[in-house]
Write a structure and sequence with these properties.
CATH topology of the largest domain: Leucine-rich repeat, LRR (right-handed beta-alpha superhelix)
Strand order of the largest sheet: 2-3-5-7-9-11-13-15-17-19-21-23
CATH class of the largest domain: Alpha Beta
Helix content: 10-25%
CATH superfamily of the largest domain: Ribonuclease Inhibitor
Number of helices: 4
Order of helices and strands: HHEEEEEEEEEEEEEEEEEEEEHEEEH
Number of strands: 23
Strand content: 15-25%
Bound molecules: 2-acetamido-2-deoxy-beta-D-glucopyranose
Distance between the termini: 40 Å
Largest sheet: 12 strands, mixed
Structural class: alpha/beta
Length: 385
């Protein structure tokens, strides 16, 4: 999976909500033992399209429409009149706290190319569970009024023009599981709480902003997310041995082009659920730990364009699910024959003798004359003695 792909979570949750909308409205509960005098089945009338929550939503959508400057697909053209549930991109469902009240549960304007800002009035959509604004041209930042969205489960604002610091209120949204901020212009530090157990995200996409992340605090490896994508972000510090702490949850880790200069600690081998590991385009040095061969779920490993050396451990190439082994652009001097059986393999630009597409003899000799890399207990490359 590339940093651009995304789990199916998003659509699944939306289907779930739509399903809820269809099923929930005051349906008679499925039998708690037949009672002698059965209460008459509640009529499954459609929910009233008017209530205070929808009135508030009406204000929110009208205020939002007012600050939309371009809408090339006319998605908001039908945002007129008080019945917001019929607006394009708006999904209503029975309120979780009151199944007899209709409320706005989802907004999906993906790929709308809409220009404008996210008005403060959005906070009026207090029951929103899903907000998908992927591939628009919203600028500014996320309004702090969104802190009222206590049910917000999926937030996807990827591929917009949003900027400023990480919106800190996001870390106190109690229901947030899927956070996608990638391809915007946010900057500054990603707060430790993004990875914290209180927020407990399932998926974090923060790549392609101008964020920086400190590995020194150890907060990243505290994460219980299954997907962490921080590509093209600046990570300061070394990959710590505590990376193994994410063993129970981590399935995909993308740290492509994050300026890390570090060793790869052997504890990485504890990540038995990890399927995709991308550490490419960094300054990882030293050897690839044999323990990667313990990562029994691993399907794709990309350590291309680093400073790794030594032998590619045979244990990796014997992994049963490995489909794609990318070690291009390092200084490996040995690759076991078992690696030739990996379906997709890129081992160009290394120093493997008598092997096609390797570095020049001069480059490899020059590398050999460098002092050997020693790794510290904290995962850092030790300075030469
Ligand atoms: C949107 O509406 C404008 C004005 O009504 C119209 O000219 C344009 O063709 C519409 N665009 C689309 C994609 O429907
Ligand atoms: C919403 O749209 C449906 C189908 O187009 C229509 O039957 C219904 O009257 C509309 N509801 C309101 C309140 O406008
Ligand atoms: C992160 O970015 C902010 C602002 O851009 C800067 O002040 C801070 O020093 C950076 N931190 C690191 C660890 O690079
Ligand atoms: C890691 O999580 C534990 C338990 O929730 C917490 O006590 C600790 O402060 C966290 N560490 C960091 C660096 O965030
Ligand atoms: C790495 O990220 C920087 C910005 O942080 C970007 O300019 C550069 O093109 C990226 N390099 C690769 C190989 O993706
Ligand atoms: C194998 O992985 C590399 C790096 O992640 C990727 O560029 C390449 O497209 C993958 N190959 C296939 C066939 O999936």
């Amino acid at each position: 999976m590339s940093p651009l792909s995304k789990p199916r979570l998003a659509t699944r949750a939306l289907q779930h909500i739509i399903l809820l909308a269809l099923l929930l409205p005051c349906l008679p509960q499925p039998l708690p033992a037949p009672s002698p005098s059965p209460t008459p089945a509640q009529p499954s009338l459609p929910l009233s399209p008017f209530n205070e929550r929808l009135d508030a939503a009406y204000i929110a959508f009208q205020a939002w429409k007012h600050v939309i400057t371009e809408d090339p697909k006319n998605l908001t053209a039908d945002w007129c009149g008080p019945f917001v549930c019929n607006y394009t991109g708006v999904f209503c469902a029975a309120a979780p706290d009151d199944p007899c009240i209709l409320t706005v549960a989802g907004v999906d304007l993906n790929h709308g190319r809409i220009a404008g800002v996210l008005t403060d009035h959005l906070g009026l959509l207090a029951d929103l569970a899903v907000l998908h604004l992927n591939s628009n041209r919203f600028h500014g930042t996320l309004p702090t009024s969104m802190q009222h969205m206590r049910l917000l489960f999926e937030l996807d604002v990827s591929n917009n023009l949003l900027s400023g610091a990480f919106p800190s209120f996001l870390t106190s949204l109690p229901s947030l599981k899927y956070l996608d901020l990638r391809f915007n212009d946010f900057d500054g530090e990603l707060p430790d709480a993004v990875f914290g157990r209180q927020l407990s995200l399932d998926a974090l996409f923060a790549n392609d902003n101008r964020f920086n992340v400190s590995l020194a605090s150890g907060s990243l490896t505290n994460s219980t997310a299954s997907v962490i994508v921080l590509a093209n972000t600046k990570l300061a510090g070394c990959l710590p041995p505590s990376i193994g702490d994410m063993a129970d949850t981590l399935v995909e880790l993308i740290l492509l082009n994050t300026s890390i200069s570090s060793c790869i600690p052997p504890e990485i081998g504890k990540l038995k659920k990890l399927k995709v590991l991308d550490l490419s385009h960094n300054e990882f040095a030293g050897e690839l730990p044999e323990s990667i061969g313990d990562m029994e779920s691993l399907e794709v490993i990309n350590v291309g364009y680093n400073m790794l050396s030594g032998a590619v451990p045979e244990t990796i190439c014997l992994l049963p699910n490995l489909k794609n082994l990318t070690v291009v652009g390092n200084y490996f001097c040995e690759e076991p024959v078992s690696c030739l059986h990996v379906p997709r393999r890129d081992d160009r630009m290394n120093c493997i003798p008598d092997w096609p597409h390797q570095r020049s003899h001069e480059q490899c000799i020059a590398f050999e004359h460098r002092p050997p890399v020693h790794c510290g207990a904290d995962g850092c490359i030790l300075p030469p003695p």
